[in-house]
Amino acid sequence: MITKNLKPIFIGVALASLKLIAADGNDLLPSDDTLPQPPRNSPTLSNIDGDFENLIIKLRTLSPVKKRVVSWKNAIADYQASLSADSVFSSLDQIKERILKEGLGEQRNKMVEKAIAGLKCDSQASTSNALLPAAKASPAPTISELPIGFILLSNVPLKQRPYLSSEKRQGSRFAGLAEPNTPMSPIGTKVLSPGAIAENLKTHIAAQDEAIDMLSMLAHRFLCNKASIERGQMVSCSPLHCILTGPTGCGKSETLKKLTELLGVSILYINARSLTDEGFKGQNFSECVSKFCEDNRGKDIRSVIVALEELDKLGGRVQTEEDTKSFGRSIQRILLTPLDGNPISIKDRQLPTPNWWFIGTGAFSGQKGIHDAKGDRTTTVRTSRDIVNAGFEPEFVGRFPSVIAFKGHTLETMRDVISRKSSPIYKIKDEFKRNYGINLIFKGAAIDALASASIEMNLGVRSLNSILNSALRPSYGRALQPPSASEEERSMTITLADIQPAIDQFKRDNKERDPRDNIPKHLQHLWS
C-alpha cells in the first residue's frame, strides 16, 4: 500500500509522464537552454578552476614593473586559451574582473589592467583571428530514454542535484566541470610553497634566514586556509599566531611588510601600546577593527594579517599605576576572543574571522642577551616562558604557538643589509635617479662608516635615515644645477668626508646622558 507521504511523489511522476506523451509528438529532452542554469557566482563555476588558481599564483610571482608587461600578457593569454569558447569567463573583461577580486595589491592590479588592454589591442589589430567552431549538439533522447526521476530532479536547484548526461556532453556550458563529488587537487600544491616565500623574503631581508624559514612555513599554512575558504571548505587548522622578537632595527617590521605584499592579503596594523580598554577614552580593539572594515568595504576580509606592533609594551611584572593607565593586562584578556578565531563584535554585528592571523612584534629589550653565548649575535626573548616572565598572562602567550627570534646585526651583516633594495641607501639612490636623473654612488668607506654608526648607536637601519637626510642636504642643491654640455650621464659620488659630520652629530644627539650631568659639579662626588 502506498503511504500517505509517498502519494504526492508518485502522482506527480505519473501526471508529468502523461503530459509528455500527449504533447503533439514533442517528446524530446529539453535542451541546455531550458535547463535551470547556475548563477554566475555559483561555487560550481568559480571554485573548480585549477587553471585560474595557477594563474593567480603566477601573477603573484611576476614583477609588477611596466617593462615586464609582456610576461603578464602571456600568462593571461595562456589562461584564456585554456578556456572553452562558451565558458562564462572566456572574455578578457570577465577575466580581468575575476582577477581583480583576488586582492593582488594596487601595483599588480594596474599590471593586470595594462596586460588586458594590450591583449585587446593585439586582438583588434589581428586580421587572422580564428573563431572556435560551434559545438555540435548530440541527438536528444526520445521519451523512452527519459529517466523516470527527471521531472522531480529538474525542480531541484542545480547545485543540489547530480549532473545529467546532457549537461556534460561536448558543447554544453557545463562541459569540463568536475562531478560534484570529484576530489579537487590538493590545496598545498596550489599556493606559494614555504621555499618560494622564504626565497622572496631573503632578497629583501638580510641575515635573518632562520627566522624567515620559520615564518614562511606559517605563511604557507595561512595561504592553505585562505584557499580552503575560497573553495567553500572548512579551514584545515587554526591560524598559527606568532610573535617576532629581537633588538630594535633587526628587520622585524620590514619582514612583515614584505610578507604582506607577497601574500596579497589585507593587513590590519595596530599599535598595541596605544590601545585602551573598552569604555575608556582612546581607541579600543573593536574600534580598530570597525575602521578597518570601513576602509576595506567590498573586499574579502575573511583572511587577514593582524600586526600587533610594540606588543612587548603590553607586559609588566608589577601592576603599578602606570601599568593600569596602559591597560596592558586587560587588553591581553580582550584579545583572547579574536585569537581563538571567534567573531568580533563591531557596532551592530558580529564579524567572522575564520582566518585572521595575528603576528606580534616587539623588541623585549629588558631581556636582551639572556640566551646568548659569547660571540653570538644579540637576541632577546626566544621562548614562551621568556614572554611570560616579561609580564604577560600565560593564557595570552598560549595563543601564540611560535616565538620567532630575530638576531641583532654585526658590522658584517649590517653591510649586507645596507646593500639590499629595501635599505635607505637604495631608496635614496632611486630618488636621485627618478627626480634628478643622477646616479648616486657611495664609496666603500662611506658605507662602512654608516654600518658602524648603526651598530654603535644600537638603532639598526632606522638610524641611517636620519644620518642620510642630514649628510645629503648639500647634494640636493647640487642635483638641481643644470648639467654641463659634456655630461652624457650625470653621477654624484658620496665619500666618507661627506657623511662623517652628519654621523658625528647623530652620535652626539643620541648619546645616553649620565644622570650626574644634571648635578652641580661640586656635588657630583656625593653620587652613589
Task: Write up what this structure looks like.
This protein has three domains: 18-126 and 139-185, no CATH class; 192-408, P-loop containing nucleotide triphosphate hydrolases (Rossmann fold), CATH 3.40.50.300; 412-509, Helicase, Ruva Protein, domain 3 (Orthogonal Bundle). It is of the alpha/beta class and 528 residues long. Helix 3 (50-61) runs antiparallel to helix 4 (69-82), helix 8 packs across helix 9 (209-230) and helix 18 (444-457) crosses helix 19 (462-471). The chain has helices spanning 7-21, 43-46, 50-61, 69-82, 92-100, 106-125, 150-153, 194-202, 209-230, 252-263, 285-295, 321-326, 328-339, 384-389, 394-397, 411-418, 424-436, 444-457, 462-471, 473-479, 496-509; strands spanning 242-245, 266-271, 303-309, 344-346, 349-351, 355-362, 402-405, 438-442, 490-494. It has 21 helices and nine strands. Strands 2-3-6-1-7 form a five-stranded parallel β-sheet, sandwiched between helices. The protein has a two-stranded antiparallel sheet with strand order 4-5.
List keywords for this structure.
528 residues; alpha/beta; Rossmann fold; Helicase, Ruva Protein, domain 3; 3 domains; five-stranded parallel sheet; two-stranded antiparallel sheet; 21 helices; 9 strands; 43% helix; 9% strand; globular
Secondary-structure map:
Blueprint: H1 7-21, H2 43-46, H3 50-61, H4 69-82, H5 92-100, H6 106-125, H7 150-153, H8 194-202, H9 209-230, E1 242-245, H10 252-263, E2 266-271, H11 285-295, E3 303-309, H12 321-326, H13 328-339, E4 344-346, E5 349-351, E6 355-362, H14 384-389, H15 394-397, E7 402-405, H16 411-418, H17 424-436, E8 438-442, H18 444-457, H19 462-471, H20 473-479, E9 490-494, H21 496-509
